[in-house]
Model the fold of this input.
Amino acid sequence: MKNLKTLNFSVLALCCFLFIQCTTDPIAGPAGEDGLDGVDGVDGVNSTTECAQCHNVTTSEAVHASFAFSSHYENGTYVRGSSASCARCHSGNGFVDYISQGAMNDYTPSQEVLDHPEKITCTTCHDMHTTFDFEGEGYDYALRTLKGVDLMTDPSYTLDFNGTSNICANCHQPRSLPPADNGLGLYEITSTRFGPHHGPQATFLEGIQGGEIAGTVEYPAPGSATHRTGSSCTNCHMGESGDQIQGNHTWFPTETACIECHTGGAPSEVAGLEEDMATLLALLETVGVVEVEIDEEGNVDVSPVRGTYKIAEAEAAWNYILLMEDKSMGAHNPKYAKALIKNSIEALSAN
Done:
């Protein structure tokens, strides 16, 4: 019995010893040698640095200040936004809706757009970047679209200005085609809105859809104008400016933008075109195809007169209105402007 008690005590003592060994920190050995220092890493790039080049207070204030001088800013630009055929260009939310539906020529505005047309603002044209590889893929300026534009008057013809200028062409294009011979050498003007509408700049720059009357002045090939091949809408109309009343988001061309190419100074006009336009207008008045009113400030208002005319007379009236509505006095496409007006004068002078 005594031996059993001794055995039990021995087992208990052994368990206590083992427990103490399992729960007590081990005895530290000698210190090892220090390891080699690692190579310092390269500092990362601040993710907002590139964004801040454009997204900063100074840039934002300049954009808003210049936009206030633009025609797009005026309240009147969206008064036609409640019309189904006008909403895509005459209201901010109409344009957004048009682009979101695929920018199709058969676009039908939503009832919300027609009931509540909105002014044109920054978000009309800008949404979010489609690429952040600005160095490799170019700046998209968060524009809603960079795609080429199928013309409203001819969907088989795609205007592609290769980049940011394409967004302009969505609205700055004619809504109707030049007069066509009815088979009897005549054309009937049925509306005082006869003409290409108020924004034919894109097609005029391309050199198409004028009334191309045969004459002694040759028409240049479509797409061959120097402003078409060597520049763009944004290059000429959005140059840097220090006074905020031209360039930038006013879209009024600056002399600085012009002299990048016109090193001898920005040309003030297409030589002889103003005189030719005056000559053509007088001939059109004589024919009776247009009426002219001049207000107290000397502004000239030209209105088509309903009636049936010789095809050349109708085409000549179209050409005059085309250049008036283009508003560049031929600068967008000087050779095309000269050919249209010179050949129109010849045709009417021969009658």
Q: What stands out?
A: DSSP finds 15 helices and six strands in the chain. The radius of gyration is 36 Å.
